[in-house]
Write a structure and sequence with these properties.
Elements lengths: L1 E2 L6 H9 L8 E5 L6 H11 L4 E5 L6 H11 L4 E3 L6 E2 L3 H11 L3 E11 L5 E5 H5 L3 H8 L3 H5 L11 E3 L3 H4 L10 H12 L1 E13 L20 H7 L7 H18 L6 H18 L9 H9 L2 H5 L3 H9 L1
Parallel strand pairs: 1-2, 2-3, 6-9
Antiparallel strand pairs: 4-8, 5-9, 6-7, 6-8
Helix pairs in contact: 1-2, 11-12, 13-15
Amino acid sequence: MCTYNGSQFLAEQLESLRGQTRQPDELIVCDDGSSDDTVEIVQKFAAAAPFPVNLMGNEKNLGSTKNFEQAIRLCTGDLIALSDQDDVWLPEKLARTESLFAARPEVGAVFTDAEMVAENLRPLQQRLWSSIGFDERKQQKVKTGQALRLLIDGNFATGATMAFRSKYRELVLPIPQIDECIHDAWIVLLISAVAQLDFIRQPMILYRQHAGQQLGIDPEDYAPIKSNLRTDLISGRTRPTSFATEIKKCRSLRERLLECGKGYDCRAALAQVERKLIHFETRNNMPRKKVERVRQVLRELLTLRYHSYSRGFKSAAKDLFV
């Protein structure tokens, strides 16, 4: 668990850890320089907790990604479950997660759905997966071993619901600083390149939505992205993230797999990464003259990379005419 000025909701989350039917073997808490009474709340909990609580305070603020990296390094168990400071775990979360790992040795990471709640824990009548578009089609792809193909385009395994085998720690750490690819996205992306993923369809946490959280989803504001060719061309919108970000993510992923993936069969994963990297480097380096772009656009259409990694003919039209 990583904490930072989390005193408003922290006690409830800690109590939900105590209330697990399968309690954790240890709790690692890394505090990122809180100025409220977060540290005191953890210390008070640790004094009476039925499991060891290891609290570390950072001398300087690291930010959430590097703070989680530090906390992960300190874990000693075979399974590592990530926890935010402001949610509430349902009692069976750890037990069901552990059972799934035990039943499927080939699975490297497990994530779950979540029930979205207001800051007072009032149900918002919406699930996390429906809010982020992790639908039946994508769930089936994960079940059939195609998780990397989906994750390379955007994360759906929220860190607050995730657990993974500690044997992959050396593969995922250190976590690079990439815009819109924080610790959970990077961890599940790397693990999906070398192992299977699995999930629990039932919500295993209450995912609290409040003004002070770093990341969250407001169900009242959520609406599926609607676009058409005309609006895409006018706005210049192609993907949720920039070419530079996608290129950096693919290069970092390729480098890590080549460096640390020698004990795994990464050939298929590297081929997928290379395929997406070629596509975004091509789009990022289109000639200034439109007539000279035709060859590159046709190649990306014929290889179906526009349809795999961008918006198909919409993105091709943008590259030709904008």
